[in-house]
Amino acid sequence: MDLRYDENGLIPAIVQQYDSGEVLMMAYMDAESLRLTLQTGTTWFWSRSRQELWNKGATSGNVQHVMELFYDCDEDCLLVKVDSPGPACHTGQRSCFFRKVDNG
């Protein structure tokens, strides 16, 4: 595996509920957050706004347990299949993708 990180050392990570296929969120990982995710079995990300690592659910209790982790054919995006029993979005919604684009 030779992942291609962007110029900031980040790679997008799409997080999906492993059993339903529901897309929960998208965040960024750096090499350290990916290492911690693989080591701990819970999701770790790089916060671009806070410029620090964060372990999803560490403060809210909505921990995501990693079931499988994939990378795409271009090696520049991750798919993290998790068991996420609680809300994934900081707004309290189950998924960060709860707003539909209206085309009219």
Comma- or semicolon-separated keywords:
single chain, 104 residues, 4-stranded mixed β-sheet, two-stranded antiparallel sheet, 10% helix
User: In percent, how much strand structure appears in the residues?
Assistant: 25-35%
Secondary structure tally: strands: 6
Return the CATH architecture.
Roll
- Overall average residue pLDDT: 95
* CATH homologous group name: Phosphoribosyl-AMP cyclohydrolase
In CATH, what is the class? Answer: Alpha Beta
Structural domain tally? 1
The strands making up the biggest β-sheet line up spatially as 2-1-6-5
CATH topology: Ubiquitin-like (UB roll)
Alpha-beta content class: mainly beta
Helix content: under 10%
Number of helices, counting only DSSP H or I runs of 4 residues or more: 1
Low-confidence stretches: none
Given the C-alpha coordinates, what overall shape results?
globular
For the CA atoms, what is the radius of gyration?
A: 14 Å
Tell me briefly what this model is:
The chain is mainly beta. The protein is 10% helix and 34% strand. The chain has one domain (11-83): Phosphoribosyl-AMP cyclohydrolase (Ubiquitin-like (UB roll), Roll).
Give an account of the 3D structure:
By secondary structure, the chain is mainly β. It has one domain: Ubiquitin-like (UB roll) (Roll). The chain is built from 1 helix and 6 strands. The protein has one helix spanning 31-40, and strands at residues 11-17, 23-29, 44-47, 52-55, 65-71, 78-83. The protein has a 4-stranded mixed sheet, covered by helices on one side. A two-stranded antiparallel sheet has the order 3-4. It is globular, with a radius of gyration of 14 Å.
